[in-house]
Design a protein that fits this description.
Oligomer: heterodimer
Radius of gyration of chain A: 19 Å
Strand content of chain B: over 45%
CATH class of chain A: Alpha Beta
Number of helices of chain B: 4
CATH class of chain B: Mainly Beta
Distance between the termini of chain B: 23 Å
CATH topology of chain B: Porin
Low-confidence stretches of chain A: none
Largest sheet of chain B: 16 strands, antiparallel, barrel
Mean pLDDT of chain B: 92
Order of helices and strands of chain A: HEHEEEHHEHEE
CATH superfamily of chain A: Periplasmic binding protein-like II
Strand order of the largest sheet of chain A: 5-4-6-1-7
Shape of chain A: elongated
Helix content of chain A: 40-55%
CATH architecture of chain A: 3-Layer(aba) Sandwich
Strand order of the largest sheet of chain B: 1-3-4-5-6-7-8-9-10-15-16-17-18-19-20-22
Shape of chain B: globular
Radius of gyration of chain B: 23 Å
Number of domains of chain A: 1
Number of helices of chain A: 5
Structural class of chain B: mainly beta
CATH architecture of chain B: Beta Barrel
Order of helices and strands of chain B: HEEEEEEHEEEEEEEEEEEEHHEEEE
Number of strands of chain B: 22
Chain lengths: ~140, ~425
């Protein structure tokens, strides 16, 4: 009996170690934007991604999202909008079909996001804190 | 799709042609495939009886959103749904065709064919994915034959920390069809059954104030509609014609009896007001409470359409399930219900010449006057299959009191004092 309990414990430890290796480490997403955009706060981020804010200090804003299901997007929704994927999708279904706009455009990777933001005036998005480089304009570091 | 709707679509598209080439387009769609069956053999809500129907719940639509520059947009929505001009077939309809201009965070202007901000879900009532219930409370959402108008709407929003105030105003014209049902018909004049009358709304206008705070919503709206019916003029009073002097034997002049030419009781344009109050609250334990109330008054005609309507609903999210329950009721004002009873029961003796026709005009007159005294209790659940699709199941128990013009009573019978159950199932999706 003791042998089997030790075997089970070793198996559990092995599984945990494998999961730590396989699963990506998820840092908090940082809000980034095109050069020239001012820093913003969390309520403003929330309102941008829910279509309620479309300009900041006269600059037209273009928010961009990662594709649904991306782990960083899920973290972003949770931290900045206090919503999960289903709630966010449901919100935009209502907003679209009351005629008040459509959801932010999706991109497939953070590399694509950084490229879009660099090329598009007024663009706002988010990246993993580990991907921050000096040329990125960080709009919000901490919620 | 009417000629006017097509004209709106063409006008907007032509005006925006130079910009459309540079526009960013987005096409989306929605649909519901569902069925409802009753446990009774009479027809309710146009289609529902004990043989079941798909028509009550089935609808599909497409929407085009175009960004025309940084502040301008174009939205077109068309849908395929059961015809509103007859009880058979499906018709395509242009629901929306409007230009929008959003110069700042606070202002939104829209011009074209659009949906008024009536009740909580009147703008998105065709999209089953956008709300929990299998059916929006019918008593409430049947108050208007249409929520579409062609005109202008202006929205102003005040953004504050944690809350948003908004004020929406609109002004436009509209048209719709109102369904009537003759239980008995009039011998040699009009058959029993349904028929539709055009409703021309020369003026639709209103204002809605709302507060949104941490997901809780409160709204108050006041609306006015000036309308004409395609039938003969409406009546502000029903004259009584005495057939035997010194007795109460006689008949009320209704729209189905010859009216006195140039009668002082004729009304060309009716004026309707509606006051509505709405509230959505997030409660502990993932409960959500929704309640709405509307009071409709048509101030210059005599009709059972003067009603008080309301519902209260509770829903709770449990993982992918959202069970819910609601109570919903509608009641015409007491004087209207009383007059409906008087008119409906007014019968002349058979020795009166043409008594059969006269008596038929009284019951048909009551059918045209309409009256509502009904409540429903619903129990249902929505199951989220994916973020873009859900299943819904619902049971409704409905009871009519003195009368209900939502019920097509069989020949010689009454609409009141009936109780029945509805069972429905639907699949809802968007893309």
């Amino acid at each position: 009996m003791q042998y089997f309990e030790e075997q089970n414990l070793r198996l559990l430890i092995l599984i945990i170690v494998l999961l730590l290796i396989i699963l990506p480490a998820v840092a908090d997403p940082l809000i980034i934007g095109h050069a020239g955009l001012p820093t913003i706060d969390q309520p403003t981020v929330q309102r941008i991604y829910t279509g309620k804010v479309v300009e900041i200090q006269g600059i037209r804003i273009t928010p961009i999202n990662l594709a649904a299901g991306h782990h960083l997007r899920q973290r972003f929704l949770q931290l900045y909008l206090q919503q999960d994927e289903d709630q966010y999708a449901a919100y935009w279904i209502v907003r679209r079909y009351v005629g008040k706009g459509k959801p932010p455009k999706d991109v497939n990777s953070t590399a694509e996001m950084r490229r879009f933001i660099a090329e598009t005036p007024g663009a706002i998005g988010y990246v993993d804190a580990d991907e921050v480089t000096s040329e990125l304009n960080i709009l919000l570091k901490n919620r | 799709m009417t000629a006017r709707q097509l004209a709106w679509c063409a006008l907007i598209l032509l005006g925006m042609l130079p910009l459309i080439g540079r526009a960013e387009l987005s096409i989306s769609g929605f649909g519901t495939l569902g069925g409802t069956i009753s446990d009774q053999d009479f027809i309710y809500q146009r289609f529902i009886d004990n043989t079941g129907t798909l028509k009550n719940d089935t609808i599909g639509g497409l929407q085009l959103d175009a960004d025309l520059g940084t502040t301008w947009g174009l939205t077109l929505q068309t849908k395929l749904a059961p015809s509103q001009q007859r009880d058979t077939g499906f018709d395509p309809t242009l629901s929306w065709a409007f230009l929008s201009w959003r110069p700042t965070n606070e202002w939104l202007l829209r011009l074209g064919r659009l949906r008024i901000p009536g009740f909580l879900h009147s703008t998105n009532m065709d999209v089953g994915m956008s709300f929990t219930f299998a059916h929006l409370p019918f008593e409430m959402y049947s108050v208007s034959p249409t929520f579409d108008t062609a005109g202008i709407s202006i929205s102003k929003t005040w953004l504050q920390p944690g809350r948003e105030w908004s004020l929406d105003g609109y002004l436009g014209v509209s048209e719709a069809d109102w369904r009537y049902y003759f239980r008995d018909g009039i011998p040699a004049n009009a058959p029993a059954g349904s028929f539709f009358s055009e409703v021309d709304m020369d003026l639709t206008t209103g204002v809605v104030a709302a507060l949104n705070e941490h997901g809780n919503r409160w709204r108050v709206g006041l609306h006015r509609v000036d309308f004409k019916l395609g039938l003969r003029p409406l009546l502000n009073e029903y004259s009584f014609v005495t057939l035997l002097p010194g007795t109460e034997i006689g008949y009320y002049q209704t729209l189905t009896t010859p009216l006195i030419p140039n009668s002082p009781h004729n009304v060309e344009t009716a004026i309707a007001y509606a006051l509505n109050l709405s509230m959505e609250l997030n409660l502990p334990y993932q409960l959500r409470l929704t309640t709405e109330y509307v009071q409709r008054r048509i101030v210059n005609i005599t009709t059972g359409l003067d009603v008080n309507v309301g519902y209260i609903a509770l829903e709770k999210r449990i993982g992918k399930w959202t069970p819910y329950s609601y109570w919903s009721g509608i009641r015409s004002l007491a004087p209207r219900l009383n007059f409906y009873d008087v008119l409906n029961n007014n019968q002349v003796p058979t020795f009166i010449p043409n008594s059969a026709v006269i008596n038929a005009t009284q019951r048909s007159g009551a059918d045209l006057h309409q009256s509502f005294d009904q409540r429903s209790i619903a129990l249902g659940a929505a199951y989220q299959l994916t973020p873009q699709s859900k299943l819904k199941f619902e049971w409704i128990n409905t009871r009519s009191g003195r009368a209900s013009s939502f019920i097509d009573a069989p020949l010689g019978e009454e609409t009141g004092h009936r109780q029945f159950n509805l069972f429905s199932f639907s699949y809802n999706a968007v893309f």
